Amino acid sequence: MQRRLGLVAAIAFLVGPVLAWLRLVPALLGFAIMGLGGLFALGVAVAALVRLVRGRGLTAGGAAAIVVSVVFVFLASRSAGVPRINDYTTDPGDPPVFVHALALPANVGRNMDYPAPFAAEQRRCCADLHSIHLAVPAPDAFARARAVAEAMPRWTVIATDQPAGVIEVVAESALFGFQDDVVIRLRPDGPAGTRIDVRSKSRDGKGDLGTNAARIRAYSAALQRTDGAPRP
Q1: How far apart are CA 36 and CA 185, in angstroms?
Q2: What is the pLDDT of residues 118-170, one digit of tens each?
Q3: CA distance 224 to 232
Q4: Fewest CB within a 10 Å sphere: which of 25, 107, 124, 139?
Q5: What pTM did the predictor assign?
Q6: Quick one: which of 145, 186, 189 has its CA closest to 166?
Q7: Across 65-178, where does the E strand assignment appear?
């Protein structure tokens, strides 16, 4: 029985991401299958270790469950210390606002406002997220911001409004295919500079394992490389 249970848990742990990667099931379902497989494997692994300590040997299913449990615990440990929020921005005091994303079928009826309590959580964990400053006028900065957004892996620009200084994007995760919404806002900063703020919001889950913050950091770094004199 342990052999079968261990193999079932291992298969579920692997099949969930594969099904989501092939886009055969929704991202959240694929993630849930993997999570359940990991939890199930953890229970089987404990039983397998007890069996091993008692000198009754280790079945193939028990060994598979132990391997999966190690991977599962490692992945889970990566979220340690990450707040359970799924909306990050470079300007918590005045976050960019989604406009075009509101009309997307997946967002109809959703509250796309930035939750006020998230600001304190974000400041505690991600003080490095701050506005991007480019030493170029707004029109040039807009062209750069759009070009960098279009070059980001798995980003799809869905709307641009240069007069309003807004770019909106849908970003997709590589493995599960989770889709998140991103808005980029540009404002004049001095006589010949531009301030750029970014906001990235998940559509699923209450936490994001740091994905949105990492996405903003990657975009910020790529955009600042286009500026000859970036300022902190």
Answers
A1: 39
A2: 999 998 889 899 999 999 999 999 999 999 999 999 999 999 999 999 999 99
A3: 10
A4: 124
A5: 0.86
A6: 186
A7: 87-89, 132-134, 155-161, 166-172
